[in-house]
Amino acid sequence: MPLEDTMREPSDRPDATVLIVAAGRGQRAGGGMPKQFRDLNGTPILARAVRAFAGRVARVIVVVHPDDRAQAAMMAPGATLIDGGATRGASVRAGLAHVETETVLIHDAARPCVQGPVIDAVLDALTRCPAAAPALPVTDALWRGADRVASVQDRAGLWRAQTPQGFRTAALRAAHDAFAGDAADDVEVALAAGLDVEIVPGHEDNIKITGPEDFARAARILETRDMDIRLGNGFDVHRFGPGDHVVLCGVTVPHGRGLQGHSDADVGLHTITDAIYGALAEGDIGRHFPPSDPQWKGTDSAVFLAHAVTLARGRGFTIGNVDATLICEEPKIGPHATAMRTRVGEIMDLAIDRISVKATTTERLGFAGRGEGIACLATVTLVKA
């Protein structure tokens, strides 16, 4: 069944708890610490696993080794921490004792790349079945043997299991109480109790980190997923008034009239600034520098642009490029375009080959065509990786 065909509105589902199993001491992945606490592209593995369930479950329980409580608390703020047992099964049983919701998801902390659609598919299946788990069909040929191939294994009906695995809470508790020994996962426990387990589509990115090579693979997956690309645009207009020059993109250009505005009326820098604020969903210049405030009267607009750039970088964004178009009949922009690009680059600490300043006319149409003022349109790209 295609993944999108399993989706339902969250309001159709009963409240669920996710129980994240993180009590292992696994050292096979290297790093000198349990793998769930190691960094992965700037964020600990456990923290990534916890965040994946934000907004999808009512409560998060993390089962940890008693020695790891302080470390886990920093990576899973707001989660309930429970001491685990000597085996995976014992850890799950310890966590289940604290689950109060009708349904529960059991997830391996070592699967930090799990995505919302996989979680939603499991939650949705629990509205019609006592248990559900994501999996991928085996597509490779399967052999049995040691140094040499002894036989071929039929792959029909074989699946690669993933987590989170979901259950009606009472049914899973009873299944664990009746299960002797330890199991590979909770589906094995559920099957032993006779529960019907629905298979929902998993995802190739939902890998389990076991060895050192898995870190590199997970990092590649998350590099693309963690990238946040924002596009912002701005538009501004200033009318002509008395004066002998205009300031455009930080450059003073001699002209028979000046531009009117509360600050220095630099329509170019105002528009680029607004484009950055727009990409950050931070409103416009007026929100940050109200024209009603006298302290900004006559201010160099570089102050506004520098503030927007600082705000963007403070949120982890780099500025990919700037493209500004000045709309006017006069003055001529071409002779000053390189100086304008250079000045914008200085204010933004950005290479000039990432900055475009150009001009166009309106073929004598409209206020700009009548020489009543200058408009500007700007687009900015912000990138967080």
UniProtKB/TrEMBL annotation:
Per the UniProt record, one Pfam family is YgbB
Q: Mind telling me which Gene3D superfamilies this protein's record contains?
A: 2-C-methyl-D-erythritol 2,4-cyclodiphosphate synthase, Spore Coat Polysaccharide Biosynthesis Protein SpsA, Chain A
Q: Which cofactor does it need?
A: a divalent metal cation
The UniProt keyword set, sorted, is: Isoprene biosynthesis, Lyase, Metal-binding, Multifunctional enzyme, Nucleotidyltransferase, Transferase
Described by its record, this protein's role is as follows: Bifunctional enzyme that catalyzes the formation of 4-diphosphocytidyl-2-C-methyl-D-erythritol from CTP and 2-C-methyl-D-erythritol 4-phosphate (MEP) (IspD), and catalyzes the conversion of 4-diphosphocytidyl-2-C-methyl-D-erythritol 2-phosphate (CDP-ME2P) to 2-C-methyl-D-erythritol 2,4-cyclodiphosphate (ME-CPP) with a corresponding release of cytidine 5-monophosphate (CMP) (IspF).
Can you say what this protein is called?
A: Bifunctional enzyme IspD/IspF
Similarity annotation: Belongs to the IspD/TarI cytidylyltransferase family. IspD subfamily.
Q: Which residues bind a divalent metal cation?
A: D236, H238, H270
Pathway per its UniProt entry is: Isoprenoid biosynthesis; isopentenyl diphosphate biosynthesis via DXP pathway; isopentenyl diphosphate from 1-deoxy-D-xylulose 5-phosphate: step 2/6; Isoprenoid biosynthesis; isopentenyl diphosphate biosynthesis via DXP pathway; isopentenyl diphosphate from 1-deoxy-D-xylulose 5-phosphate: step 4/6
Give the start-end ranges of region 2-C-methyl-D-erythritol 2,4-cyclodiphosphate synthase. 230-385
Designated gene of the protein: ispDF
Region of interest (2-C-methyl-D-erythritol 4-phosphate cytidylyltransferase), ranges: 1-229
Reactions accelerated catalytically: 2-C-methyl-D-erythritol 4-phosphate + CTP + H(+) = 4-CDP-2-C-methyl-D-erythritol + diphosphate; 4-CDP-2-C-methyl-D-erythritol 2-phosphate = 2-C-methyl-D-erythritol 2,4-cyclic diphosphate + CMP
Site note Positions MEP for the nucleophilic attack, residues: R155, K208
Query: From the UniProt record, which GO molecular function terms apply?
Result: 2-C-methyl-D-erythritol 2,4-cyclodiphosphate synthase activity; 2-C-methyl-D-erythritol 4-phosphate cytidylyltransferase activity; metal ion binding
The record's InterPro entries line, in alphabetical order, gives:
IspD (IPR001228), IspD/F (IPR026596), IspD/TarI (IPR034683), ISPD_synthase_CS (IPR018294), MECDP_synthase (IPR003526), MECDP_synthase_CS (IPR020555), MECDP_synthase_sf (IPR036571), Nucleotide-diphossugar_trans (IPR029044)
Q: What is its EC number?
A: 2.7.7.60, 4.6.1.12
- What is one GO biological process annotated to this record? isopentenyl diphosphate biosynthetic process, methylerythritol 4-phosphate pathway
Please state every residue range assigned to the domain named 2-C-methyl-D-erythritol 2,4-cyclodiphosphate synthase.
229-382
